[in-house]
Design goal:
The complex is a heterodimer of chains A (about 140) and B (about 110).
Chain A: H1 3-8, H2 39-47, H3 53-60, H4 64-73, H5 84-89, H6 91-98, H7 104-111, H8 115-124, H9 128-132
Helix pairs in contact in A: 3-4, 3-7
Chain B: H1 2-19, H2 25-53, H3 58-81, E1 87-88, E2 93-94, H4 97-113
Antiparallel strand pairs in B: 1-2
Helix pairs in contact in B: 1-2, 2-3, 3-4
Classes of the chains: A mainly alpha (about 140), B mainly alpha (about 110).
Chain lengths: ~140, ~110
């Protein structure tokens, strides 16, 4: 068993989507999530409780109303505005949830960081990059 | 087995909650919810492993998914009522109600295709 497969068996297993984890060799295609109509819908769902609408819209180069419309079309609950304090505590979750969804530049944009902070966090925040599988899956830029 | 043995203890904890003084009953209920979340977690881990072992066996996979969906629904209720359930301490990320819902959607999707 690979380390990444082992990590997927950790205490968070209750929330994991049941696709095949850890099968993508480093730097290859992201894990497909065919229960979403497209990666765009996956992005909106995955970040609905993690990021504010305006930031999500900026990442997609669209308007907030378009993001809200996508969320509504999936029956998502009313979008909540996250406080700065909440956002500051969610960065690991944001990176993890978007690891197989967005390219690095868009993850950085979603976080509101710069590349230096992003790379430092991956390397120094309790081996976050290792937990995520070391090499970022290749994700094409996402827009609406 | 872990889940089965754990479940045996839940009625005792429920009874203890009923016997708890009124001013502590809310704390007891929250403790009971944590114990229930742990039981659901143990069952889910078991299902997760069996799911991967049985891939390619549609009947088995469907049975596992059929068992897993109500577990996830129960887990979602607990997550929504107690924010302590939702922080994955060893990997330090949060899982939120929509993550549990996604799991349910994913399981239903796979049941249709299994």
């Amino acid at each position: 068993m690979k380390r990444r497969e082992f990590l997927y068996l950790g205490p968070g297993v209750c929330m994991l989507p049941w696709s095949i984890p850890g099968k993508s060799p480093e730097g290859q295609a992201p894990i497909p999530e065919p229960h979403f109509p497209s990666r765009l819908y996956q992005f909106v769902w995955r970040n609905w409780e993690l990021a504010n609408t305006d930031r999500m819209a900026a990442v997609l180069q669209t308007k907030p109303a378009a993001v809200l419309g996508l969320g509504a079309s999936m029956g998502l609950p009313k979008k909540r505005q996250m406080s700065e304090d909440q956002l500051a505590r969610l960065y690991i979750t944001v990176i993890r949830q978007n690891w197989h969804v967005l390219p690095e530049e868009q993850i950085i944009q979603l976080l509101g960081w710069d590349r230096q902070r992003y790379e430092f966090t991956l390397k120094e925040d309790d081996a976050l990059d290792i937990k995520l599988g070391l090499k970022k899956p290749r994700c094409a830029p996402l827009d609406l | 087995m872990m889940a089965r043995e754990w479940q045996k203890g839940l009625p005792s904890l429920e009874e203890a909650g009923r016997r708890t003084a009124a001013d502590r009953r809310q704390d007891a209920a929250r403790d009971l919810n944590i114990a229930r979340a742990a039981m659901l977690y143990f069952r889910s881990v078991s299902n997760y492993l069996r799911f991967h072992l049985r891939r390619g066996e549609p009947t088995q996979v469907r049975a596992i998914l059929r068992d897993e969906i109500p577990l996830a629904e129960q887990f979602l209720d607990i997550c929504r009522s107690d924010s302590r359930v939702g922080f994955e301490a060893s990997l330090q990320y949060f899982y939120l109600p929509l993550d549990i819902r996604e799991k349910i959607v994913s399981c239903r999707y796979m049941m249709e295709g299994a």
